Amino acid sequence: MAYMTYAILITGFIYPDRGFNWALFWELLRPDTFLLAAAVLAAIAVAFLNVQIPSALGQLVNIVTTTRAPGEMRASALQLAVLYLAQATFTCVYISLLGMVGERFAERVRNRLFESLLRQDLAFFDTRQSGEIVSRLSGDVQEFKSSFKQVVSIGLRNGLQAVGSLISMYLVSPQLTSYLAVAVPLVIAVGTSLGSLLRSMSKDGQAIVADANGSASEVIGNIRTVRAFGMEDREVNEYSSLAAKCRTLYIKLAFGIGVFTAGSNLFVNSLVLSVIYFGGKLMDQGTLGAGNLMEFLVCTQTIQRALSQTSVLFGQLVRGTSSGSRVFEYLDREPIIPTKGGMTLSSVDGDIEFVRVTFSYPSRPEQAVLRHFDLRLKAGKKTALCGPSGAGKSTIANLVERFYDPTEGAVMLDGHDIRTLDPQWLRSKVIGYVNQEPVLFATSVLENIRYGRPDATPEEVYEAARKANAHQFICGFPEGYDTVVGERGVTLSGGQSQRIAIARAILTRPRILILDESSSAMDAESEHLVQEALDRLTKDKTVLVIAHRLSTIRNADEIAVLHGGEVVELGTHRELLRKQGVYANLVKHQLSGEGGYVV
Ligand SMILES: Nc1ncnc2c1ncn2[C@@H]1O[C@H](COP(=O)(O)OP(=O)(O)OP(=O)(O)O)[C@@H](O)[C@H]1O
């Protein structure tokens, strides 16, 4: 009965929090089952030897304190030396094997987590800071891995040693062992409740650290805006308040772990004291020899060491399991919109139709951005979307790309609901997206251009750059196409970045193009070069342009004027001007004001 109580209490004591997905954990560990089993066997061997050594030592002491026969002494010493050597060898084996298992496991976790993150819906990223997500990939995986290694190595070895030593102690003196057994359940009960408190504190602490990382990386990523508004002090204050929260929580946690560690040390030290005291009494009665007491003491010390290391390990376990839960939370999260899978079409005309589409962003379900929206983007024609900010222009582009799915209705491509088509095929082969405030990666110009088609030859890249009016300025760089652009292409001017983005789109040869036109002004020369490149790119394609410039809109085959998520006017530039409605007003207003920019 007493052992059952121990078992229940110990389970409660080490049981990790609920977010910890055991099934997934084992699945990730499975490829290394053999290595792990070998490491565990080596650790068991070490534990076994550590239990054997005190008895061999006790035997030697018994011989030394009684017969002192040279033959017996030599044999006993030799036996002890062999045990020490074997213990050293197995220790080396299990530590190395476990290191290997830990690293391979962490690699798998990282890869799977990264893959899972990249598959998530855009709605997932709408509601989370990128720094917070990245901290799960780096910090949490690291913490989880080291906890796993330590728990298996120290935990397993110590646990087995403690059990083995307890059995040896019982064999040496059942009476003395039963004295000690009385105090243990009490200590474990206290440990269990303190343990669950510390676990929840640690999880809160990690969440605050992730928050602080998230806001720091956002501020660093947007340093220009922060600088431009002179907001350094405010950002420092906000970061400091998160850091302070984190400090308070971790100090409390450290205190808790301190109490726990000190308590268990005190407990085990009192064990030693009791052994000597009661053992002395038993020796006096003649029921215990000096060697036996020595063996018993070494066993007690093995248990003491095991328990004190386990108490330190406990802190690690607390952090490790909460890191593990944070990792697992994202590891197998299934996105609503898959990144691949579905039908592909052998040829695409590029006719797109919105059929009674109602849509709200998942992060703001109460706000319907589009309501029963109908619009046709005719194959091979250019449709310009214009209208005030917030009217829903980018949302329409997002739905064509299938970054989100409509709440009701459907977006059709050549008569097929795009939800039945392979999203990867759709995005990489059919639709090209030119954001005219483009994001360039911190790599060479060449790699940036061939981002959408990594197998393109350098010649194809040069050709695309020529068509995009980019070849000339790229050749003007000392390192030409090998020039590395800054983290966000900051070493390039706005017009140059745009032309690189256009070259990128030319290379992927999409049938449908989405152009998100820049609303910022460029000098006339730059604007002319970009416009010329765009004209080449968009020729004969279905084009959806989120238009800001009058020149773009004027040349469109059809103009859709949006307001509040609805098409309020539809027609050509001439038709809409004749109507003397919203569009005509917009143009009149803008021409008199900002010269050429419609929204
Ligand atoms: N990721 C998002 N999550 C939640 N709401 C969003 C998101 N993106 C846009 N919205 C909201 O949807 C509405 C339409 O936004 P959208 O970006 O489509 O407008 P827009 O016409 O492209 O505006 P702009 O010309 O300023 O880019 C706005 O009210 C906006 O706040």
Automatic annotation (TrEMBL):
Organism of this sequence: Monosiga brevicollis (Choanoflagellate)
Record Gene3D superfamilies: ABC transporter type 1, transmembrane domain, P-loop containing nucleotide triphosphate hydrolases
GO cellular component: membrane; mitochondrial inner membrane
UniProt keyword annotations, A-Z: ATP-binding, Ion transport, Membrane, Mitochondrion, Mitochondrion inner membrane, Nucleotide-binding, Potassium, Potassium transport, Transit peptide, Transmembrane, Transmembrane helix, Transport
Biological process according to GO: potassium ion transport; transmembrane transport
ABC transporter domain span: 352-589
Database matches in PROSITE patterns: ABC_TM1F (PS50929), ABC_TRANSPORTER_1 (PS00211), ABC_TRANSPORTER_2 (PS50893)
A GO molecular-function annotation: ABC-type transporter activity
Protein name, entry field: Mitochondrial potassium channel ATP-binding subunit
A Pfam family annotated for this UniProt entry: ABC_membrane
Domain ABC transmembrane type-1 residue range list: 37-319
Source superkingdom: Eukaryota
Highest classification ranks of the organism: Eukaryota, Choanoflagellata, Craspedida, Salpingoecidae, Monosiga
Signal peptide annotation: none
InterPro entries per record: AAA+_ATPase, ABC1_TM_dom, ABC1_TM_sf, ABC_transporter-like_ATP-bd, ABC_transporter-like_CS, P-loop_NTPase, Type_1_exporter
Location(s), subcellular: Mitochondrion inner membrane
TM segment ranges: 33-57, 77-102, 154-172, 178-198, 253-278
Membrane-protein topology: Multi-pass membrane protein
